[in-house]
Write a structure and sequence with these properties.
Blueprint: H1 7-23, H2 30-41, H3 45-56, H4 63-73, H5 78-122, H6 127-174, H7 184-197, E1 203-210, H8 213-220, H9 222-237, E2 245-248, E3 253-259, H10 263-278, E4 296-302, H11 309-325, E5 331-333
Parallel strand pairs: 4-5
Antiparallel strand pairs: 1-3, 1-4, 2-3
Helix pairs in contact: 1-2, 2-4, 5-6, 8-9
Length: 340
């Protein structure tokens, strides 16, 4: 049983949960409540550390981030993974068993064949009997090998299917289902790899936000809004080379992480992204009417040496905010935050 709180303890925690959610302007619905309750309880070390880092960097909590925290630390998705791993383990075990059986059967056949050949050399009068024994043993060996071959083929087929399912499950855990871009879990995994390879690695961040998207959803509905969001996401992600990673970091916000480039190059890429999205044209499938032009605002920054990752993301969001304040549909970079 995960929780063993008394009624009084649960009531006290409920008050703290409510205060946490209200402070961060979050609705009190089951997912937000579950994340906050586990955080207040302190029972999930990974979740607590994740939230503490975000609080320290003054990151803005929203329903999207809370849902990701829930999926990462609380969702019961391990059961499917555990079953697949058990299946794979079973397949590997059977393959190993079949291989051992093949070796044992082959060894026995060779041993018996050697014995009969020895008898054949020492007792010519019994040639017919020995030949019959050899033929019988050879036939038995052939049947065993055919059965073993069938078992190996079936086991190999199952192992390929399970490998495919594991790959699909891995992708589902790392991708945003609506846009196909990577999620925050994939982002953190990739950043850890980059910094472990090279602790002083230069990483540029381009934060992208669709201008006035909430108004678009209000005017045209969330169904059309999701289609537009998905197409814009694909366009934004198309400017990231294999070395980088495009992430859906919020509702209508994306994050492009580009390793080993300078601020000037990152600015140039950001401007290409802005122009590319501005050129997109959308038509309603319902009445074939043209939809309003979509534009984006972008903020560009570089990870500083020994800078906390969550502080870096918060600073990147400040640069994006500057692009919005300057009129949207433009690129701002971290140098604009410096006093004149």
């Amino acid at each position: 049983m995960k929780y063993q709180d008394s009624l009084q303890q649960a009531l006290e925690k409920a008050g703290l949960v409510k205060a946490f959610l209200q402070h961060n302007q979050l609705a009190i619905h089951p997912i937000n409540y579950a994340v906050a309750y586990d955080y207040i309880s302190g029972s999930n070390a990974g979740l607590c550390q994740d939230i503490e880092q975000k609080l320290a960097s003054k990151a803005c909590f929203d329903n999207f981030i809370m849902a990701e925290l829930y999926q990462r630390w609380l969702a019961d998705e391990n059961a499917q993974q555990e079953q697949l791993l058990q299946d794979v383990t079973g397949i590997v075990g059977r393959l190993s068993g079949y291989t051992d059986l093949a070796a044992e059967t082959t060894g026995q056949f060779i041993q018996q064949l050697e014995q009969q050949l020895h008898h054949l050399a020492s007792a010519p009068a019994q040639l017919a009997d020995i030949a019959g024994i050899i033929k019988s043993q050879a036939l038995s060996y052939q049947q065993n090998q055919q059965q073993l071959h069938h078992q190996l083929v079936m086991a190999n087929k199952q192992s390929h299917q399970l490998r495919h399912e594991l790959e699909q499950l891995k992708l589902q855990r790392l991708q945003d289902p609506l846009t196909g871009l990577y999620n925050r879990t994939a982002m953190q995994n990739q950043v850890d790899i980059w910094l472990n390879e090279k602790p002083q690695r230069r990483i540029a961040a381009i934060v992208v936000d669709i201008d006035h998207f909430s108004r678009f959803n209000q005017d045209y509905g969330h169904t059309i809004g999701d289609v537009i969001l998905s197409k814009v996401a694909r366009k934004v992600g198309s400017y990231v080379q294999a070395s980088g990673i495009p992430v859906r970091s919020g509702g209508e916000e994306f994050l492009l992480l580009l390793p080993d480039i300078d601020l000037r190059t990152a600015n140039e890429i950001a401007e290409q992204v802005r122009k590319g999205v501005e050129k997109l044209r959308f038509v309603s499938s319902r009445d074939k009417k043209s939809l309003p032009k979509i534009t984006i605002s972008l903020g560009v920054s570089l990870l500083q040496t020994k800078e906390n990752w969550f502080h870096f993301l918060a600073r990147s969001s400040q640069v994006l905010k500057l692009a919005k304040e300057r009129g949207r549909n433009q690129v701002a970079d971290e140098l604009m935050l410096l006093p004149n």
